[in-house]
Amino acid sequence: MLRRSFVSIIAAGVLAALPLAAAAQAQTDPLPSWNDGATKAAIVDFVAAVTTEGGPDYVAPNNRIATFDNDGTLWVEQPMYVQLAFALDRVKAMAPDHPEWKDKEPFKSVLAGDMKSVAASGKKGLAEIIAATHAGMSTEDFEKIVTDWIATAKNPETGKLNTAMIYEPMLELIDYLKANGFDVFIVSGGGIEFMRPWTETTYGIPPENVVGSSIKLKYEESDKGPVIMRLAELNFVDDGPGKPVGIQSHIGKRPIAAFGNSDGDFQMLEWTTTGPGKRLGMIVHHDDAAREFAYDRDSHIGKLDKAMDAAPKEGWHLISMKDDWKQVFPDQ
Amino acid sequence: MLRRSFVSIIAAGVLAALPLAAAAQAQTDPLPSWNDGATKAAIVDFVAAVTTEGGPDYVAPNNRIATFDNDGTLWVEQPMYVQLAFALDRVKAMAPDHPEWKDKEPFKSVLAGDMKSVAASGKKGLAEIIAATHAGMSTEDFEKIVTDWIATAKNPETGKLNTAMIYEPMLELIDYLKANGFDVFIVSGGGIEFMRPWTETTYGIPPENVVGSSIKLKYEESDKGPVIMRLAELNFVDDGPGKPVGIQSHIGKRPIAAFGNSDGDFQMLEWTTTGPGKRLGMIVHHDDAAREFAYDRDSHIGKLDKAMDAAPKEGWHLISMKDDWKQVFPDQ
Q1: Which of A35, B113, B126, B238 has the least CB density, counted as fewest CB within 10 Å?
Q2: In terms of Cα–Cα distance, which of A207, A134, A202 is closest to B253?
Q3: B82: Cα within 13 Å, side-chain hemisphere
Q4: Taking a C-beta distance cutoff of 8 angstroms, is the pair B44, B28 a contact?
Q5: How far apart are the first and last CA of chain B?
Q6: What ipTM was assigned to the predicted interfaces of this complex?
Q7: What is the pLDDT averaged over residues A171-198?
Q8: pLDDT band at A15 (very low <50, low <70, confident <90, very high)
Q9: A200 vs B253: CA distance, rounded Å
Q10: Where is the signal peptide (chains A, B) (predicted)?
Q11: Which regions of chain B does DSSP assign to beta strands (E)?
């Protein structure tokens, strides 16, 4: 019996190591920054349902697609979109090479720090700023510009790095979904090539899993070899009804879970949750003025109105930043 | 000592199972359908170089991107592109609902089987056939149409399923690259949504790893809920200089290995192999009339001329189907 017990000990220690580890992990809370309650339960129940083999709601791993909006869903979008801050900073950095901007709107107002006049220049002015700062260089040069900028760029109100103004509970959610076989994508109205240089280090989401708005690209020869140039021509707007189209173009599968925070996410949530089988749609509600910002229906940035009204009927869960999140940022 | 020997046996059998299996696999030829020679050696040497940690050519797994053309590189493109056969079959299937086609070119000639007149209708005629057969339905309906068609569609010369007319050596190459940490993409001039329904079962390449040409899509409400409609408007041509652009849009990374077979792959090969570090560019040369087809410079389908001339200078390897492949198709 001694020999058999040795075998048993070895078998228990080695063969069973894997299931034991899995069981141990299941007992650790994968979402520690979420307060217990209906919202957290909805997430955990959904993941359990779609990953239970043989269960009525089981979804094979290759169809476990989850999509996340970025601005206001994964990182702070107040007091202005980070990409707009990037564009304004670029105007200032490029100004020495553009003496004509001193007398030319909207650049003149950007350089003077007169944000009211910049805003008054409207969509046309914004398009000119984007064209001047986002086009006319190669994709590799643009990647370097963004990488250099994001390394030091700070939120103007908190003085913290933008890449630190990210939501810890959403990072946990991304990791939790990935650990359960999900393929996680960003689907943002922001520029696809503005996001790609830092999404992997910031969120663990690689460039190929980023869907966003884009300008046209052109492959051409240069004296440094072939390059892909960024043209001052809009290609695709990945916002509102554009989000399901961006999802279809890039992923070719309908998500089973989607996370947003504004009316720009309405169609992504609708497309996701009206598909067959169990689905999860969630909206980050910015109701926490103390720890972040409080805004919804009347905000110019991240307006949440139509989607908030539709949520109960559509079965979308509102994530209350105030009530559902124990901790907002990673460093708190 | 008896007890220790038991422990040793268990330890050898259980603890060491994983590394032993890995060592065994390394000694098995991962490319059995490739004849030994310079081409196979170039593949194996490249993979060894970029996966050797600490080596001068090491590439981290997240940057091991490989791209494959489809028509003529992964499956047979003669005597006509499979997608063209699909379009012609669809015209015939849809004809009862379009009595006007009996008197309207190019549909009249398609229905009469008069391929010379269809060809004479040129790009305009082809665009009309594509619009009639590829647009006007939802993405989900189109996926079903393609799935149903590909299940029985056969090559007109061999009478075999198109999905069986795939190159066994390339399947082995895809698996070999994946086993070595590569992320493998199709980058084809063919329609992205024509390929996605069958690439996973046929090649093991999932929909999200397929890049191709596309028509515009539009999200809209229908009486069956929201749908994404396919519009009769060209969106993107993923061929020639479009391939690096498609790669950048979808993947956001520059490949380190690319495989094609025609001048339509020139820029993809160039973009891939002119990047820094070790790179691999290969061209399938159809020189095997006995087992497949023999064509290059003068072919209307899969014309290989400019890229063949450039190959020696650019360091691109020609894969001779006749000399480098022991076996062409999976069932031989």
Answers
A1: B113
A2: A207
A3: 29
A4: no
A5: 54
A6: 0.91
A7: 98
A8: very low
A9: 13
A10: 1-26
A11: 65-68, 183-191, 210-222, 225-236, 257-260, 280-285, 317-320
| Domain B31-78+161-324 of CATH type 3.40.50.1000 | yes
Task: Give the orientation angle of helix A38-51 with respect to helix A168-179, to 10 degrees.
Answer: 20
Q: What is the residue extent of each domain of chain B?
A: 31-78+161-324, 82-150
CA A210 to each of CA A146, A293, B300: distance values in angstroms, whole numbers, following the listed order:
15, 26, 37
Give backbone dihedrals phi and psi of B98, rounded to 5 degrees, phi first: -130, 70
What span, in angstroms and rounded, lies between the C-alpha atoms of B145 and B193? 11
Those residues with Cβ within 8 angstroms of residue A127's Cβ, 6 or more apart along the chain or in another chain: none
Residues of B in contact with A253 (CB under 8 A): 207-208
Distance, in Å, from the CA atom of A35 to the CA atom of A43, rounded to the nearest integer, reads 12
pLDDT at B202 over 80: yes
Burial-class residue A224 by CB neighbours within 10 Å (0-12, 13-18, 19+): exposed
State yes or no: pLDDT of B12 exceeds 50.
no
- Residues β-bridged to residue B282: B259, B317
**Nearest 5°: phi and psi at B29?**
-65, 115
Q: What does the alpha-carbon distance between residue B141 and residue B130 come to, in Å, rounded to a whole number?
A: 16
Beta pairing partners, B226: B221
A245–B218 C-beta distance less than 8 A: yes
Give the closest-approach CA distance of B219 to chain A in angstroms: 6
CA A37, A38, A40, A46 torsion-angle sign? positive
Please tell us whether the domain made up of A31-78+165-324 is placed in CATH 3.40.720.10: no
Nearest Cβ partner of A271 from B226, B241, B274? B226
Residues paired with A185 in a beta bridge: A67
Q: What is the pLDDT of residue B69?
A: 98
Six token digits for residue B214: 């596309």
pLDDT exceeds 80 at position A238: yes
